[in-house]
Amino acid sequence: MKGIIEILLERNQTSPNNKLFHFVDYSTEEKTVTEVTAGMVFENAKAIAAELQEKGAKKGDRVVIFSMQDAGTLYAVYGAMMAGTIFTVIPPPIDEGKIERFVSVVASCKPKFVISNYALEQQGTSAQQSTQQTSNIRSQLSFNKQRYLKKQLLRQAFFQAIRLKRIYTDRITPTTREFPLHQAGPDEVIYLQYTSGSTSEPKGVMVTLKNLMIHMAQVQEIYDYSTGSTLAMWVPFFHNLGLLFGVFLPIMALEGKVYFLQTLQFLQKPTLWLRLLSEYRVKLTLGPNTAYALYPNILTPQAAASFDLSHTSYFLNGSEFIDPVTLRAFAELFGIQAETFACGYGMAENVCLVTAAIDHYKTLWVEEEPLRKNRFVPCESGQGKELVSLGEPLKGITMMAVDPATGKPCEEGQVGEMYIRGDTVSQGYWGKVKDNENFKVQVEGHDGYFFKTGDMGILYQGDFYMTDRIKEILVINGHNVYPGDIKAALRKNIPALSADSAVFFTVEAKHREAVVACIEMNGSHLDPAALAVQVNRIAARMFEFSFYDVVFVKKDSLPRTDNRKVRTHKVKELYLQGMLNRGSQKSLTERVGEQLLPGMSVQGTDMLQVLFSSRSHDSARGRDAARSRDAAGSRDSASASALARENSALSQIAPDGIHEKVKAVFNELLEREDYDPNAGFLELGGDSLRLVECVCRLEETFHIKLDVNQISLNTSVNGITELIENYVLEGNGNVIKIDLHKECTLDPSIAPQAPYEHSLSGCKHLFLTGSTGFLGAFLIRSLIEQHARKGFRITCHVRAQNKETGKERIINNMKHYRCWRDEYAHYIQVVTGSLDQPMMGIKEDVYQELSRQVDAVYHNGALLNFLFPYTFMKETNVDGTRECLRFACTGKAKYFHYISSYSVYDTPSHLGKKVFEADPLTMGEGFSLGYSETKWVSEKLVQIARERGLKACIYRPGDITGDTVNGIWEMKDLLSRLIVGCIHLQKSPKIKTRLHIVPVDYVSDAIARISMQDDACGLAFNILGPESVDVKTMVKAIRRMGYKNRIVPYENWRNELMQTHIRENPLRVLASLFPKESTEDGQSTDSLITRFGPLQPRYDMTNTHRFLKNTRIPKLLHKKRLVSVYLKYFKEQEYF
Fold first, then answer.
1. CB burial of residue 197 (10 Å; 0-12, 13-18, 19+)
2. CA–CA distance, 865 with 930 (Å, rounded to integer)
3. Residue closest to 830 by CA, chosen among 895, 892, 771
4. Cα angle at 744 between 739 and 750, to 5 degrees?
5. CA–CA separation, 155 vs 147, rounded Å?
6. CA dihedral angle for residue 456, residue 462, residue 463, residue 468, rounded to 10 degrees
7. Domain 635-736 - what CATH class?
8. Region 189-202: what's the mean pLDDT?
C-alpha cells in the first residue's frame, strides 16, 4: 500500500513547484496570500523530522502539534510522520477549556514533544495583554477571579509541558543531512484524533495508515478532488474534517488546490468565507449546519447578491444535526440549487466520513408520534417532521441499525442504533479506555466485529436518516462535549449541587440543537436562580456553550433503572411531553410556580417534580417587567419628570439608544427578554457561533466593525454596550462607509394621488413631527401665534402610550422652554406613533382619517447625534422622512415642509465657496458627520417627491441655539457643550472656527412665516444669522460673567480635555470630533475644525431675506450680547 509520505515524495520529485496550499489573510485592508508548494511541504517537513530525531525521537513517540492554522502546522504533520512518531493535532492552550484539554491529552498519550509557532505564540500573548489593558474597571474583579483559575490550570499545564521538548516551525532551517524517511506499515498508528471531547477520559482515536489511505480513496471517488478542483475552508486543522480535507487530500490529489481562511477571521467576519468562495471560484467547501444558518440572519438579499456562489459544486455539511429549513434559507439567499448541498454523517472513529449524499439532496417527512417510539413512518410533506438524507454509506462500509434492547438487527421500518464495519474503522482509542469495548461488538447473523456509534437512525431506501443519539456525548457546533466533564466541572465549582444526579440532553429550539440540564436539588436554603446562573457561567467558561434551560427537580425524582442509573432518554421524553402538552415548542417549565408535572409518571410510581426552570423564571420576570412598565406608564407626569431628572446626568454623557439596541439583538437571538444585563451571552443560552451572529447583527445595527476578541472579554449586554460606547465616544468605531447615492430611493407609489384643492396660505390643519423637541416646542408656538384662526389646528405626532400622556408631554416640554400659554391647548391635538415604524407607527384607521384631513406636513422630527454613524440614525431620520412623504401623498394632496440642516453643505465640493439655496446638492461624499448624511439623503428624497408633483419647501437652519428672551438652551449639541466645556477647563482653544448662532425663536418664527406664503413652494431657505461668533468673542462673554478663561494652543487644550472624564466635562463626550492636530493651514478637509473655520462656506440667504422682508423677525438676530444671555441660563441650570 502506497503511503501518504511516499506520495508526498513523488509530488516533490515530479511537481515540486505546484502551489497546493494558499493561506489567505484578510486582516489588513489589502489581503495577503501565502502560497505553499509541494516542494516546500517536503523540505520543511524533512527539517522538522530531522530536528525530532536530533532531539531523540523514536518510532512510536507521541508528538503534540498545536494547530496554528498556518503552513507550519502542515510541515509539522508530515514531519512527525517522516520521523516515525505518532502525532496529534490540538488547539493551542489559549483559554481555560483548551488548557484543560491540553493537560488531559498530555496525560492520555504521554507525548515527548510539542510543535508550535514561536511568532504566533508571542503575537497571541501580546494581543491578549493589549486586550486585557483595554478591559474596564467594572469587570476587573470578575477578570481577576478567572485569571486566578486560569493560573492554576496554567500551573498544571506547565508541569506537563516542562517535560516536553519544544520545536518551533518558524525557527527550523532546511537540512542537507540525508536520512531515511520513515515509511509506516498499513497497520501502524500514524496519528491520534482526539474527539474534541472528554477531559476526564480523553479519547484519542488511533488512525492507522491503512485507515487513512483507504478513506482518502473513498473520499476521492465521491468528490472527484483529483481533477483540479479547488477547496476553501476555515475549519481548524485539529478537527478531523480540517485534517483530512485541508492537510492530506491536497497532497493526495493530482492538481487540487486548497484555500485556507483563518478560523478566527471567519468568526470575526463570517462573510469572508463567502468572499473566499466568490473570489477564487471555489468548487468545494465545508462547514457545520450552524455556519450555514448564520447568513440568512445577517445578510440581506442585496448584500448576498455581491457574492457569486454559482460555481461551487458542493457545500459539505456535517458534524451536527442538519436542518432543512437552514439549507433552504441559505440556497434561496444565494440563488443556488439544493443539490449542491452534500450532507453527510461522520465521526473520528471512522477517520472522518461514514455516509455522504452526493448530487441527490433530499428530505423526507415522517410521522412524529411513531418516531418517538422508534418507528419510521413516512408521511405527506408538511405533516410531520422533516429529516435530511445523509446519503449512502461510503464504499467498503457496512452499516446497519440494531435494536439497542436486543442487540439484533432492526426490522424493516424500525429505528435503531447504527453499527458500522469496514477497513476505515479504527481499532480503538489510545490507552485503556472503557469505551474500547464499543469497537468489538458482534451482531447476530453477521461475522466480524462492528463499532456501535451511539447514534439512532435508519437506512431507508439506501439512505441514512439520523433521528437521535443514545450516547451521552453532546455535539455542539460540531464539537463533542461529554456529560461527565460537565458534572466534574459542576462538582468542582458548585459543591452545593448534587452534580452526579444530573442529566443533559438536546432539544430542538428555533431550528437549532439546544442543550437542557436537568439536575436534582436538595435544600430549600439554596437559591435556584443564582445556581442556574452559576451553572451557565461554568458551561460558558469551560465548554463554550450555555444551557437552553436549567431545570432543578426534587431530590430522587429523576427516573432511574434498577441499578439507580438515571434514564436520560426518559427524562428527555418527559421534558418534550411537557412541551407538547402546551401545544408548542415551549419548555414544560414555563409553568411558573408549579411543583408537579401531572400525568408524567415513571414506572407507575416516580413523579418528576420541577422546582425551578431558568426559562420559565425568565418568562415570568419578563411578564412582571412588562406589568411594571405598564404600571410605570400610568404614573403621573410629576413622577415621570422626577425619574427623568434622576437620570439626566447619565443622558447628558451617554450616547442615546446603544443599550436598548444591544439588548434588542440579545432578545432576538436568545428568545428571551428579561435577564441579568451583566450575564455573558454564553451564560444566557447562546453558543460560540450565535455569538458570531450577535457580533454581525451589532455591526449591522451600528455600522461599525467590532473585534470579537475584545467582545469576548465581556459578552454581556452592559459589557458590549460599554465597548460600543467607547468606540463611538473615542472615534474608534471603524465606521463602514456606504454609497449615499444608493440610499436615495423612493417607492414609486409615493406621489400625490389627487390634485391640490387648497393654497399654501389656506392651510388650516397642520401635521407636525418632532413636537416634543427643542425646535418643535417653539414651532408650535410660532405657528399658533402667527396663524391661529377659526378651524386652525396642529396634529402633533408624539411617542407616547396614549393621546393623553402625549399631550401632557407636549405641554410639559413647552413649559420647560417657557413658551407655553394655556390657550394653545385649544389648537393642539395628538396622534401617537414613532418615525422609525411603517406609517409612522400610527394606527391604520387614524392614519387614513388624518390623510384625508391634513393640509400640510411639517417634518421636523429627527435624531440629532454627532457621534453615531449614518446607519444608526437611518431608521428615524431617513426612513422616517420616507414615511412622512408617503403620508403627504396619501389621500388629500398635502404641502410638505422639511426642516433640514445647513450641514448638507458639509462636503469637499462646497468648502471655501459660497453655497446657494438652490444648490442641487449633487455630491454625497465626504461628510464629516453621520447626521449630515441623513439630512442630505432626506433632502434628495424630498426632491424626488417634488419631481413627482409634491409641493414642498426645505428649510436649512444653522446651529440652533437658545431663545433670545430667556436663553433656554439644552446642552445636547456641539456649541453648548463647547461653551460649557471651555468654562470647565478655564481654557479655550486657539482656532479660527466661527460659530453660527441662530436662536431657536428666530428659526421657528421664520419657518412659520415663510411656510404660509404661496410663492414659497419649490424653494429652499438657508436660515442663519448674518454674523458668526469666533472663539475670542465667546471668551470675552465668559470673562464678563466673572469666569477665568484664556486662549491656549489647540494641542494643549485638546490634551487637557482628553484627560477629563465624561462625567466631569460635558464636552468630553464629543472629544473624538477634535483631531490631534488643528490643521489650521487649511490643507486638510477632514478636520471638523477646518471645515468650520478657514474652509467654512459662505451661505446665500436670498430667499430667506426676501420672504422675511418687512417683518420684525430679523430683529431677533441683532440682540446684543446674546452669548451672555445663554451663559446666564447655563449658570442658572448649574452647568458649571
1. buried
2. 8
3. 771
4. 160
5. 12
6. -10
7. mainly alpha
8. 75
Sign of torsion, CA 541 546 547 550?
A: positive
Residue whose grid cell is 404660509: 1012
Q: What is the pLDDT of residues 872-929, one digit of tens each?
A: 788 899 999 999 999 999 999 999 999 999 999 988 888 888 999 999 999 988 888 8
E-strand stretches of 522-584? 549-554
Question: Which alpha helices (DSSP H) does 466-522 contain, by range?
Answer: 483-493
Phi/psi of residue 601, nearest 5 degrees: -85, 150
Location of C-alpha cell 404641502? 895
- Where residue 60 falls (left for φ over 0; alpha for ψ -120 to 50; beta otherwise) is left
**Phi, psi (deg, nearest 5) at residue 515:** -110, 135
The strand pairing partners of 551, in sequence order, are 518, 613
User: Which candidate, 777, 743, 723, places its Cα nearest to that of 1008?
Assistant: 777
How far is Cα 659 from Cα 833, in angstroms, rounded to an integer? 22
**Residue 462 cell numbers, joined:** 439506501
| Longest distance between any two alpha carbons in the chain, whole Å | 108
At residue 566's C-alpha, the angle toward residues 386 and 545, to 5°, is 55
Residues 1023, 1003 contacting (CB under 8 angstroms): yes
- Alpha helices in 912-1019, H assignment, sequence order: 930-947, 974-985, 1000-1010
Cα separation of 784 and 828, whole Å?
A: 9
- What class, spelled out in words, does domain 4-120+149-280 have in CATH? alpha beta
The two domains 4-120+149-280 and 742-754+763-1132 share their CATH topology (first three levels equal) = yes
Among the four given CATH numbers 3.40.50.720, 3.40.50.970, 3.30.43.10, 3.30.200.20, the one describing domain 742-754+763-1132: 3.40.50.720
Which pTM value belongs to this model?
Answer: 0.61
Distance CA 460, CA 353 (A): 19
Side-chain-side CA neighbours of residue 1073 (13 Å): 23
Q: Is 128 helix (H, G, I), strand (E, B) or coil?
A: helix
The CA distance from 1 to 1121, in Å, is 96
Residue 544 gets which letter from DSSP? S
Beta-carbon contacts of residue 199 (< 8 Å; ≥ 6 apart): 100, 101, 103, 104, 482, 485, 488
Rounded Cα distance, 108 and 201, in Å: 8
Q: Show contacts of 966-970: CB within 8 Å, 24+ apart.
A: 966/818, 966/1125, 966/1129, 967/1125, 967/1126, 967/1127, 967/1128, 967/1129, 967/1130, 968/816, 968/817, 968/818, 968/1129, 969/1000, 969/1126, 969/1129, 969/1130, 970/774
> Cα–chain-centroid distance for residue 685?
15
Helix spans in 704-842 (H):
708-711, 717-730, 774-787, 803-816
- What rounded mean pLDDT belongs to the chain? 83
Q: Which residues contact 366 (CB under 8 A, 6 or more apart)?
A: 376, 377, 378, 379, 384, 385, 387
80, 55 Cβ separation under 8 angstroms: no
CA atoms within 13 A on the CB side of 862: 27
Type and span of the H or E element at 205:
strand 204-208
Distance (Å, whole) CA 321 – CA 317:
9
Residues 6+ apart with CB under 8 A from 601: 607
Q: Has residue 814 got a pLDDT over 60?
A: yes
Give 694-749 pLDDT, tens digit per residue: 887 887 777 777 766 667 677 888 888 888 877 666 555 455 678 899 999 999 99
Domain positions in the chain are 4-120+149-280, 482-620, 635-736, 742-754+763-1132
Q: Looking at domain 482-620, which CATH architecture does it have? A: 2-Layer Sandwich (3.30)
Long-range interactions of 327-332: CB distance < 8 A, separation 24+:
327/289, 327/292, 327/361, 327/388, 329/293, 329/296, 330/292, 330/293, 330/295, 330/296
